[in-house]
Every structure is written in structure tokens, then in C-alpha cells.
Amino acid sequence: MNEKPVQRFGGLWNISFGFFGIQIGFALQNANMSRIFQTLGGSLDDLSYLWIAAPLTGLLVQPIIGHYSDRTWTR
Q1: How many domains, the chain?
Q2: Which of 26, 36, 40, 47 lies 20 to 30 Å from 69 when distance is taken between CA atoms?
Q3: In angstroms, rounded to a whole number, what is the distance separating the alpha carbons of residues 1 and 29?
Q4: 4 assigned to some structural domain
Q5: Which residues contact 50 (CB under 8 A, 6 or more apart)?
């Protein structure tokens, strides 16, 4: 395969709709995370750090994964 495939509107729509479903699933899971953190021993004062850990990890990890996945189409 020498050329990159062209992404059409339908493909972009399906990807966006799929990620929307994933976000809904994460929101449902996160609705109970404060209670789960407390059950696991987290104090009320530490909940803000626990809540920010996942978005910060995504902020750091996703660009790295994107960088390497963008390079898969070239030598």
C-alpha cells in the first residue's frame, strides 16, 4: 500500500459516534468513582488528585501513541 487511504465523512462520523459511546460509558463509570476511591482508602482531600490522574495520563500518553501511529504509513 503506497498511498494513505482517504477518510470520508461516513468514516469520520462512525469514529466520532463510537468515541461518543465510549465517553458515555466512562461517564457512567466515573459517576461512582468517588465512592470507589473512598472504599479503596482514598480520603476526601485526595479525591481531586485521583480525579485528575486519568485526564493527565491521557494528555501525556495520547500524543505519544498518535505520533507512533502516524508513522505506520511511512517507512
Answers
A1: 1
A2: 26
A3: 40
A4: no
A5: 33, 37, 42
